[in-house]
């Protein structure tokens, strides 16, 4: 295991592995380690090239919606997913999707009649459950709804900062925010409390699963709720969610933005 | 530049950069280069951690359909994209999507009435234009339709091998193959010739853009063609395409499979 100790070392000694070979000798020689200005070297550099390739391929397949329903991350990608989540990868991806979304929102032609709308999912989109998943193997453990509910009921999930930035930008343009979550209606109060505490304000409506929505797939439940918004005359400009089941189905938004999440899958 | 010479070196000397630190000394010390069994070390190891992170993030955003229309790859990802395409990354991703698609096809409940259908795009899905893009910066150059047409008219594009495997598996299950391409009707003969030469046979129909389809986006053109298939009673079990415009729109298939392609974007 070359794990935490290497983080320490690499945070002191960032490096790049490039050799300036000025003679054409075909024989192997010792590689020269050079100092570099970048400070991106982290835990992930300890994973073998093979694991990096394989698990990146798996993660890309997740983000492209190419995988069948899956219950937990591949066991041999456990360190990779952890590194991605706590390292720079996740943060970079979050910022990219937030920036893309904001650029699109700013360029969209708005009607200004109060019917321009944007849909936001909550978990892993507006609020981060990373403190919970840190304790549960970053998706390596099978999902335990009892334990997760206990976490939700603490109401302490931090904001996904890049999403808070997008959220505020969207509101500042006069677009209405609809929060459409798979959370249960019985968690309304704690969810409102958590959202406010984490900096989210002034949403138009918070939609949670009511009794009759339980047992439906997220795709079906969320599609029905979007159908209702369309019937009420809203134009769905954008939709931000970390699950494809947030984004696909009927009454889809003009642009859908897949927020990264390699930890779990909701059908 | 630590480019081709390092490929040479690394192909002789595969390595992993992991140190087994058994004492907790917080002081920097020389890193130890270890031999490893894997042979995945290539050109990409020359890219800085920063470029790897940034360009992987960009590529994930492409595959997740998070980017606005884009005309060419980011300039600072030119080496990264090349490495991905000629290295193991692209091949791994192709195999993964092919395997996922085949598993799904084998588990799908088929009617057996001759109306089970699968849609395949052609370019970068069944046939590879990599020999062309090798000569044109792997997406770094702005697309030149005249030059690309000259390449198409040679009829020498090789099969995407993983897609040929899927294609044959799909046919062996009794599913009808519909080839739905953005290529023009005037390229029908050379396309048929190229497909046959590369090993593809027995498709049910090859659909190309006719005069009235020119000027439509791929999403619109392909949606209209899928609408017609549905009207003809076909059930679209699967759809394989390297562009989201192959997969989204109306009459979408039960499962859509995004074949990797970081080189270009078609709306």
From TrEMBL, chains A, B:
Keyword Signal: yes
InterPro entries: Acid_phosphat_B-like, Acid_phosphatase_pln, APS1/VSP, HAD-like_sf, HAD_sf
Signal peptide range: 1-18
Keywords, in A-Z order: Glycoprotein, Signal
UniProt keyword Transport, yes or no: no
Gene Ontology MF terms in the entry: acid phosphatase activity
Family: Belongs to the APS1/VSP family.
Name of the featured protein: Acid phosphatase 1-like
Naturally occurring in which organism (per UniProt): Dorcoceras hygrometricum
Taxonomic path: Eukaryota, Viridiplantae, Streptophyta, Embryophyta, Tracheophyta
């Amino acid at each position: 295991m070359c794990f935490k100790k290497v983080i320490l070392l690499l945070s002191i000694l960032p490096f790049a592995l490039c050799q300036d070979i000025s003679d054409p000798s075909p024989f192997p020689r010792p590689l020269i380690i050079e100092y570099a200005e970048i400070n991106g070297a982290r835990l992930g550099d300890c994973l073998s090239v093979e694991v990096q390739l394989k698990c990146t391929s798996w993660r890309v397949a997740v983000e492209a919606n190419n995988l069948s329903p899956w219950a937990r991350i591949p066991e041999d990608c456990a360190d990779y997913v952890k590194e991605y989540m706590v390292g720079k990868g996740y943060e970079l991806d979050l910022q990219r999707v937030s920036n893309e979304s904001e650029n699109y929102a700013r360029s969209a032609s708005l009607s200004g009649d109060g019917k321009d709308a944007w849909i936001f999912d909550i978990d892993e989109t507006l609020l981060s459950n990373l403190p919970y998943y840190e304790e549960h193997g970053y998706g390596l453990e099978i999902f335990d709804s009892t334990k997760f509910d206990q976490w939700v009921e603490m109401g302490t999930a931090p904001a996904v900062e890049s999403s808070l930035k997008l959220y505020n930008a969207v509101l500042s343009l006069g677009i209405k925010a609809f929060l459409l979550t798979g959370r249960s209606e019985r968690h309304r109060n704690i969810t409102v409390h958590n959202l406010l505490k984490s900096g989210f304000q002034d949403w138009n409506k918070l939609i949670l699963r009511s009794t009759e929505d339980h047992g439906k797939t997220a795709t079906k439940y969320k599609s029905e709720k979007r159908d209702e918004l369309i019937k009420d005359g809203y134009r769905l400009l954008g939709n931000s969610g970390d699950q494809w089941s947030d984004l696909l189905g009927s009454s889809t938004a003009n642009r859908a933005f897949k927020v990264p999440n390699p930890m779990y899958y909701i059908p």
